[in-house]
Write a sequence for this structure.
């Protein structure tokens, strides 16, 4: 018998035999026929067995071998039938062993135990009903039991081996699927990181450009010195925006970059510079910095606070031009770091950065993606804190957040 005989019909039932299956079936039939012929030859030596019975044994043994072609479709019924037949017709013993092997390969242990137990019981009965003239009863029984146990053990080994191969194959497929999902997640995170970096770095600069460009268009009769100063600010802001864009793209292209790269990242110590930059753009910003040693704030925490203030100032410049913006930062290692940016309702329409946004042409406001505040909440959550926003009772707007004081 071939160790690869049959397929596990429980897992993958087959509707047609392949070349391999035909070869295995022919080998099993030949093996069963050899065992049946040997049993018939042993019975032929017994003078008490009439020739008619010997002929009937050979016919039944041949029919049992032919019945093995159905062993893949009905393994258990065939095995039970052949066990009963082989008990009274020894030439069918070979076919019975093949059928029991098939059950051991294709069926779970409970079914194998039931069929195997029936086969074991049949061996002493066969030795008593149709004794071998060359073997004593105990030797014949022990030989039959040993053959049945060997066939069952072999079949269960083949089954376990096939299950192991299937398990390894499924595990490999699962690993490939997980690797693909991890790659897709990495791509999604990379896209989110790119969007976040682009928004944080460029939105602030571009809003400053809109403010100064709107001021030039709003006041075409401004003194040449003021026009030159505004044009210089526009030029410097555009240059800085291009530089920061180049740096961000360089960082994102770097293999294994985590968003930090070699580009210096802003911290809480750079907050005053950010506020001063907004003041130069014409905003009225009051900074209430209550953290005595800003340099002691962990870089990750200070960077998140910086981004919160930056986004809040950008939004105030767009939607509340002319209003005084209040920035308050306080905290300690024990209490964490709290930040709040508040502005009252915006100024008059038409002012640079006025109500409804800074204007280039009358009524044209600075566009926004609407995702900045959502991104702030995500940043704060990743840092273990929180960030919220909403209108104030007087019609203004407030952005507030809290972050743990930790590296």
């Amino acid at each position: 018998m071939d160790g690869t005989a049959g397929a596990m019909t429980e897992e993958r039932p087959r509707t047609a035999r392949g070349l391999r299956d035909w070869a295995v079936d022919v080998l099993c039939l030949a093996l069963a026929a050899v065992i049946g012929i040997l049993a018939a030859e042993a019975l032929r030596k017994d003078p008490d067995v009439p020739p008619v019975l010997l002929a009937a044994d050979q016919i039944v043994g041949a029919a049992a071998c032919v019945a093995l072609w159905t062993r893949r479709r009905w393994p258990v019924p065939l095995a039970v039938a052949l066990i009963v037949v082989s008990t009274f017709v020894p030439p069918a013993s070979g076919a019975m062993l093949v059928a029991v092997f098939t059950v051991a390969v294709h069926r779970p242990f409970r079914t194998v135990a039931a069929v195997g137990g029936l086969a074991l019981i049949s061996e002493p009965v066969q030795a008593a009903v149709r004794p071998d003239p060359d073997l004593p009863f105990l030797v014949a029984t022990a030989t039959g039991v040993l053959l049945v146990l060997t066939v069952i053990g072999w079949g269960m080994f083949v089954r376990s081996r096939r299950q192991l191969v299937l398990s390894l194959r499924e595990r490999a497929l699962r690993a490939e699927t997980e690797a693909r999902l991890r790659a897709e997640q990495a791509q999604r995170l990379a896209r989110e990181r790119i969007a976040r970096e682009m928004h944080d770095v460029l939105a602030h600069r571009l809003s400053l450009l809109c403010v100064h460009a709107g001021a030039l268009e709003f006041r075409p009769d401004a003194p040449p010195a003021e026009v030159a100063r505004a044009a210089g600010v526009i030029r410097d802001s555009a240059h800085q925006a291009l530089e920061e864009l180049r740096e961000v793209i360089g960082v994102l292209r770097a293999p294994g970059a985590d968003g930090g790269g070699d580009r210096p990242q802003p911290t809480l110590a750079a907050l005053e510079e950010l506020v001063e930059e907004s003041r130069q753009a014409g905003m009225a910003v009051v900074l209430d910095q209550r953290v005595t040693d800003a340099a002691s704030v962990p870089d990750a925490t200070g960077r998140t606070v910086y981004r919160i203030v930056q986004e809040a100032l950008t939004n105030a410049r767009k939607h509340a031009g002319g209003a005084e913006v209040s920035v308050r930062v306080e905290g300690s290692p024990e209490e964490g770091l709290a930040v709040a940016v508040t502005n009252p309702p915006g100024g008059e329409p038409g002012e640079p950065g006025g109500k409804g946004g800074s204007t280039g042409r009358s009524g044209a406001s600075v566009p926004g993606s609407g995702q900045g505040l959502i991104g702030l909440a995500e940043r704060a959550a990743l840092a273990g804190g929180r960030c919220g926003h909403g209108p104030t009772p007087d019609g203004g707007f407030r952005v507030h957040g809290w972050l743990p004081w930790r590296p």
